Amino acid sequence: MPKVSSRLQQSLNPPLALPPTQRFLPALLLLFVGSGCAALIYEIVWFQLIELVIGSSAISLGVLLGTCMGSMCLGSLLLPRFVSPEQHPLRVYAALEGAIGALGLIVLVVVPLMGSIYTATTVQGLPGILWRGVLCAVCLLPPTLLMGATLPAIARWVEATPTGVSWLGFFYGSNIAGAVFGAVLAGFYLLRVFDMTVTTVVAAIVNFGVAGVGLALSRRAPHRPAIPRPNAEVERSPTGINAVYVAIGLSGFAALGAEVVWTRLLSLMLGASVYTFSIILAVFLVALGTGSSAGSYIARSSRPRTALAWCQLLLTLGVAWAAFMIARALPFWPINPSLSPSPWITFQLDVVRVAVAVFPAAALWGASFPLALAAVVGPGDDAGRLVGRVYAANTVGAILGSALFSVVVVPHWGTRHGQQLLIAISLASAIVVFAAVRRAHAAEAERDVPRPSGWSPRPAGTMLAIAGAAAAIACVVTVPGVPDGLVAYGRFLPTYTNQPRYLYVGEGINSSIAVSEEPSGVRNFHVAGKVEASSLPQDMRLQRMLGHLSALLTKTPRTVLVVGFGAGVTAGSFVTQPGVEKIVICEIEPLIPRVVSTYFTQQNYDVTQDPRVQIVYDDARHYILTTKEKFDVITSDPIHPWVKGAATLYTKEYFDLVKAHLNPGGVVTQWVPLYESSPDVVKSELATFFDAFPDGTIWGNDINGSGYDVVLAGHASPQPIDVDSVDAKLGRPEYRRVARSLADVGFSSGLALLSTYAGQARDLAPWLTGAQLNRDSNLRLQYLAGFGLNTYESSAIYAQMLRYRKFPDDLFVGGGPAREQLRTVIEAPREEP
């Protein structure tokens, strides 16, 4: 790399310097676009793939994210140590991209194999968490290690001066632009239309294309390694450089911590669908890329360290702005999602709301990276080594920020105190760099270092910095808390003019929850911005149905697994069942059984205090995957399938897994909502369940004949129902509590419960023709459901199902009058809604 003239080095406003191979710069930017696109596609696919094995709890996701980011950090540090600067940067970069593409394809094969090993050898507690980390490392460390090495590799292509290194900000911004495209492409198209295999192949093709172009450019573009030269600038003293590393580490800590907090709050406001998460990620990345480009221009000044300090100080205002907008402004915009004729209109509004909140702060975090690079580099330095260190410091901070905010800060302190902490961290980062700058100026004054023409001390700047720090402290004090109504009603908050009385509002490790009481005395349990359970008649009927129907469809239920606690009503139904010896409840959010259950003790029979109950705080799929226990009854009442992550509890593989954990004669029941759903979504849920349980049945929970939700039931082998036996059983003294529990929700007899029969798999086959199966490889349901979350066609969907209903002579058996009475009820004409 040729030397830069001293006149150019000393100029306060140098022209934008390019390497001699400047004609290749546009191609390099395009290469980084492709690299970023492939990386984000991989990240989305890998997270989805690994979650199927280790679960989707906050701890599992923390382990997964920490492993990925940690290995990228390691890659950024190792490449400069093991790859000589003499190697052509473009050739190294091409080799890395080609290897990433190959390893990306290998991961698709390795994860299922490692999943089998993990399932057979998993343990609980801290050893289990460490074992999850080992699994993630084995599967993802090689490709993510190489991803972390790409930026230090290409850094050796630029000159080791603040002006030259500032071009890395453009490379970084191009990489982020590609990441935005990859996030949108994968989230809105590839995974929605195809599956994880096709999506991974697309990413690999992009990697191979980038590698090919990079290799071709390396043959045409000469490379001259940087010539080491002594550097006498006081500002580049070890103390000053260390201050930059500390600041960029704190910046990464705050950025990922803010992403955790704002994703939690924005998903409440927009609906926690897979599309919402893609929008939040895309907007955050766009802001980072924009800030990175702006920071690259600013980094050409002779005082990038001062600019970095101001950037951190402005971040205190950016975080405060986001906190205010999310808590006081955006949730109250007069928007009714159910009025939107198309989900695409809703997506546009969501993009605007996310951008209004997070763009300023995210852009400042994006600007911090090129400013930090320019602040530590000097002529003759190994740019790759310095970039690796800055990248590593930023990534270590990001890992700590993501982990601590997910597991400690939000669950224990809440999002309000979390945002106060973010402001304080940004202020601390600014103070660290301002102090280093001040020490550097003092040292220059002592040594009588010549100042650039026109330079003079600026006490006004010091006063302005002090005023900014005071404003930051004021922001810490005035950060608003999340509105109770946002936790309760989410995106529909503007439509609730009369708020209920909130008995409890809390932010847990996985979800934000609330318990409210209406003037009528009805209590609601809210999670993720929607009502998940309540004491309303239709909800109580469904929750009791899931419990009592499951027990009555099994001859002698002794062991029960309940997936999803809710208000505890379904689990509590089994408390009344005689003969039940063990009730295992699997719930991902610890706050729900510990706190929410206490507000519904009358409805759930104080189930958490029953000695037969065992509560497992884990992702239900992960628990079933790793337990060797079998059950007589497995009943699932998961969250709505449009909520990101819930679709894993509706896949064909999950139902096969559940079937494998049934004792002979056991039954599986599954809740399926008809509201906030479209016909395609419901068809997908039913077709997937019936593919695992070909003799499955449907039981309806309607409101005055109109659809509301249904219960699916399936056995490992056909199990006829003796109608007379069910009625007789409920008349026995030991079933008195069961009969009373059913009567409380409108079922006066066993016949009344069985009359909710709404169809079976073989009769509905014509209606389900062409329905998309929800599989682990595509999780199609979450993409279908995400488009239907603002749709209200429950009555029409239920009416379509009932057109195929027939009295099943082989299902309902018995020689008494009850069977014929049931036939009369089922075959009675029904008015269309």
Layout of helices and strands, plus pairs?
Elements lengths: L5 H5 L14 H30 L3 H25 L6 H33 L3 H31 L6 H32 L2 H25 L17 H33 L3 H25 L5 H26 L13 H34 L6 H65 L11 H20 L5 H6 L11 E7 L4 E6 L5 E5 L2 E5 L2 H16 L6 E5 L5 H7 L6 E6 L3 H4 L6 H4 L8 E5 L2 H7 L4 E6 L15 H9 L1 E12 L5 H14 L4 E7 L2 E10 L5 E2 H8 L5 H8 L6 H5 L2 E4 H4 L15 H9 L5 H9 L9 E2 L3 H11 L6
Parallel strand pairs: 5-6, 5-8, 6-7, 8-9, 12-14
Antiparallel strand pairs: 1-2, 2-3, 3-4, 9-11, 10-11, 10-13
Helix pairs in contact: 2-3, 2-4, 2-5, 2-6, 2-7, 3-5, 3-12, 4-5, 4-7, 5-12, 6-9, 6-11, 8-9, 8-10, 8-11, 8-12, 9-11, 10-11, 10-12, 10-13, 11-12, 12-13, 15-16, 20-21, 21-26
Question: What's this entry about, in short?
Answer:
This protein is α/β, with parallel strands linked by helices and 833 residues long.
Gap from first CA to last CA: 77 Å
**C-alpha geometry:** elongated
Strand order of the largest sheet: 7-6-5-8-9-11-10-13
* Number of helical segments with 4 or more residues: 28
Structural class: alpha/beta
Q: What's the total count of β strands?
A: 14
The CATH topology assignment of the largest domain is Rossmann fold
Determine the CATH superfamily of the largest domain: Vaccinia Virus protein VP39
Average pLDDT = 86
Main beta-sheet strand count, sense and barrel state: 8 strands, mixed
The tally of domains stands at 4
Overall CATH class of the largest domain: Alpha Beta
| CATH arch. level architecture of the largest domain | 3-Layer(aba) Sandwich
List segments where confidence is low: pLDDT < 50 over at least 5 consecutive residues.
Answer: 1-21, 229-236, 453-457
Radius of gyration: 30 Å
- Measured as a percent range, the helix fraction is 55-70%
- Sheet-strand content, in percent, reads 5-15%
